[in-house]
Write a structure and sequence with these properties.
The structure is a single chain. This protein has eight helices and 13 strands. It is an alpha/beta fold and about 300 residues long. Strands 2-1-3-13-12-6-11-10-9 form a nine-stranded mixed beta sheet, sandwiched between helices. The protein is globular, with a radius of gyration of 20 Å.
Amino acid sequence: MTLKHNEQAQTVPSGSTTIKGSNEGSLTPAPAAMSVSGTRNLPALEVQDVHASFRERRSKLPVLNGLSLTVEQGEFAAIVGPSGCGKSTLFHIIGGLLKPQAGQVLMNGQNVTGQRGKISYMPQQPALFPWRTIEENVLLAGEVSASAPPKAEALAEARKWLASVGLAGFEQAYPHMLSGGMQQRAAFLRALLSPQELMLLDEPFSALDALTRSDMQRWLLDIWEQNRCSVLFITHNIEEALLLADRIYVLSNRPAAVLQEVDVPFDRPRREEITEEPAFLERKRQISEWMREEQRKARLSP
């Protein structure tokens, strides 16, 4: 594994992934994906030098400090960082709910800064409407989108996916009748069946117990392999990020910038056994060290 940090390179054992430091706010993106015809595809998402702050009485609270990242077409990217560093604020900016003080958000090369309706989103909690059946909840994203397919076509597609994720027979059930894991599957399908190409997942498994979380990770990998949509995934769990993602962005303390960018080299499809391999454990150890160092800096700061 080649490690580049503060413009000093050193070699550590095993693997072929590249870890790139970005302490000066710059970011070297991975090469853009190539289409079948050999032409270069534009990234699904580019966040370029975004700055954001909130007013706190008479002062400003800086939240994002020149943050830049890229999600390629069909890529699964993850974000890890200290609690309160601004990860959710970043999602709000990408989704158009907030406007940054500086910088821009591009999707497929188009500037969409401050525009809503460009992404599908899954929050930490399933957020299913209790008065709607599971089937109706899954269909919700299409109902509010002008580019959704006809209702009959959307219903057939939803029922096919509900069956494929083990929710056949629960189409007419209400959320309170399902377990936490089953509710998460329904919420994920709602985001997956949205007509938007980019999916933002904000710690979707954080409220689940360890066993259910592990089951949901395997399930998410299986479903994503079938769909290969572009995903940006927030998690505090380093092992989860390494298991799921193609690329990991490690954020600094608030105001957040990209501290490190890690290209994950493990082949797909991935299985849980990979978490016991030395190369996986080495990367987990290195990211953990960066995170601990950020926590130490936060304790020492005034």
